């Protein structure tokens, strides 16, 4: 199951980069691809069953959810924050098996 989620993250990363290139080059438009890059890198190490990567993925999810709820900016969006929260819960369920 973990490699399928990694593929999902990679596809979303490519889509977010493609979507961001059509906009003006500002940090705000590239924030979502940067989040997805962090999610993707962390998840690739989660596939390798690394405990630190699991903690990093949970931390990235927590920070992204905090930014999503506390920043009231129309330009910032995180359409997948619920899905990433579900993935973080799955990681928490399997964290005892990680190295």
In short:
This protein is mostly helical and 99 residues long.
In terms of topology, how is this protein built?
Layout: H1 2-21, H2 31-47, H3 51-70, H4 81-94
Helix pairs in contact: 1-2, 2-3, 3-4
Explained architecture:
α1 packs antiparallel against α2 and α3 (51-70) runs antiparallel to α4 (81-94). With 99 residues, the protein is mainly alpha-helical. The model has no long low-confidence stretch (mean pLDDT 84). The longest helix is centred in the first third of the chain and has 20 residues, at 2-21. The protein has helices at 2-21, 31-47, 51-70, 81-94. The protein has four helices and no strands.
**Computed CA radius of gyration, to the nearest angstrom:** 14 Å
Shape assignment: globular
Structural class: mainly alpha
Succession of helices and strands: HHHH
Poorly predicted sequence stretches spanning 5 or more consecutive residues: none
The number of helices is 4
**Percent of residues in beta strands:** under 5%
Distance between the termini: 18 Å
The helicity comes to: over 70%
Give the total of beta strands: 0
Average pLDDT works out at 84
User: Could you give a short account of the major beta sheet?
Assistant: none
Q: What's the multimeric state?
A: single chain
């Amino acid at each position: 199951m973990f490699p399928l989620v990694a593929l999902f993250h990679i596809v979303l990363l490519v889509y977010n980069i493609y979507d961001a290139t059509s906009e003006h080059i500002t940090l705000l438009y590239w924030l979502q691809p940067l989040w997805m890059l962090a999610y993707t890198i962390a998840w690739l190490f989660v596939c390798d069953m690394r405990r630190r990567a699991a903690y990093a993925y949970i931390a990235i999810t927590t920070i992204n959810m905090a930014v999503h709820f506390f920043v009231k900016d129309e330009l910032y969006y995180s359409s997948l924050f619920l899905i990433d929260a579900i993935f973080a819960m799955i990681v928490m369920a399997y964290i005892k098996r990680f190295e």
